[in-house]
Design goal:
With 335 residues, the chain is mainly alpha-helical. The chain has helices at residues 2-25, 48-61, 66-84, 89-106, 115-134, 141-157, 170-187, 199-221, 231-246, 259-264, 271-291, 297-334, and strands spanning 29-30, 42-43.
Length: 335
């Protein structure tokens, strides 16, 4: 089995290098602007390796999750097209909802008697995938955060921790880890040194992959608190959206108001430092949840609410102290 994974790793690495040549030939690049956190032209779409990894997994280990693979292909494919030529928001949203519905079918969640729950879950999951996409703004953060979610999923899946084992094929988690390592090799670097960016194809693609795995875990346990594996992104993403609504901003317009963006831009922290902060914080929260919190629904909810409150307060205090620096930056652009 280890030889199989070694072969997969080599194929993934080669596939990423081949994509770089294609992206360079067809000018698939990310040009910096006043709202970017980078200042050099970089190849876009390196995150396509997650989609490639999903299909390589299917080729090696079977197509037992065919609807999931189709869903990721649809959403990542549309996102890749959007990376090259901007698509209307309506087109992207329709494809995202269709893809999520296919994933729900794979998870056996589409039941007529629970139609209201299905609709709510669709809205929440599509919203979560877009928040993960919004959080892809500096080097390393997408790859690092993906690993912070994959590790606890792997630990639960391959051991008896939490009284559960085998909620998803373990080879899928390992293959996605290998794809993430390959991506991080080219992206987890300081500002100006990344070989590629994930692009929407990467951030949206990995979002659907993580949501499928977490959804499988939730369906196996009936415990939705496992969404805590995405909590750090959730707090930053949701509270930033609320902030922008309060400022009467167009939510579809690019911006630099996330906490991680203030750290990397206005405070001048290195991309690696900020990415490691988010990665390690999420990983620590998840590991405490797995190993130290009693395995009861009540204990899980208490821990989730407590961490949610602490993270939200930390976000608010951080914004209150440092957001004025971003306002000064915006004022400098106008002048």
């Amino acid at each position: 089995m280890s030889l199989t994974y070694a072969i997969i790793a080599v194929i993934l690495f080669a596939a990423e290098l081949i994509y770089f040549r294609i992206a360079d030939k067809f000018n698939i690049i990310d040009k910096p602007n006043e709202r970017s956190s980078h200042s050099t032209i970089v190849l876009r779409g390196g995150g396509i390796i997650f989609l490639i990894g999903a299909w390589i997994w299917g080729a090696f280990f079977g197509m037992q999750y065919l609807w999931f693979l189709l869903a990721v292909t649809i959403v990542a494919g549309v996102s890749f097209v959007d990376d090259i030529h901007s698509l209307p928001d309506s087109v992207r949203l329709v494809c995202q909802f269709v893809a999520m519905a296919l994933m729900f079918y794979q998870l056996d969640m589409l039941h007529a008697d629970l139609w209201w729950a299905v609709i709510l879950a669709l809205i929440v999951c599509v919203g979560a995938s877009n928040i993960i996409n919004f959080m892809d703004g500096i080097n390393g953060i997408t790859g690092g955060y993906a690993m912070a979610s994959l590790i606890p999923l792997y630990l639960i899946n391959c051991s008896s921790v939490q009284g559960l084992q085998g909620f998803v094929d373990n080879s899928l988690i390992i293959t996605m880890m290998l794809a993430d390592i390959v991506f991080c090799f080219f992206n987890f670097r300081e500002k100006g040194k990344a070989k590629c960016f994930a692009g929407d194809v990467g951030s949206v693609g990995v979002a659907y992959i993580l949501l499928f795995m977490i959804g499988s875990l939730i369906m196996a346990t009936g415990d939705i608190t496992y969404l805590i594996f995405l909590l750090v992104y959730g707090v930053d993403g949701c509270l930033t959206i609320v902030h922008r609504i309060m400022l009467h901003e167009n939510l579809g317009q690019a911006h630099r108001k996330h906490a991680y963006q203030l750290m990397a831009n206005e405070l001048g922290m290195s991309h690696i430092t900020v990415s490691l902060l988010y990665t390690c914080l999420q990983l620590a929260i998840s590991l405490v949840f797995i190993y130290l919190v009693p395995n009861t629904v009540m204990a899980h909810w208490i821990y989730l609410v407590c961490v949610l409150v602490v993270l939200s307060l930390a976000y608010l205090l951080f914004k209150m102290k440092y957001y004025h620096l971003h306002e000064e930056y915006l004022a400098s652009l106008k002048s």
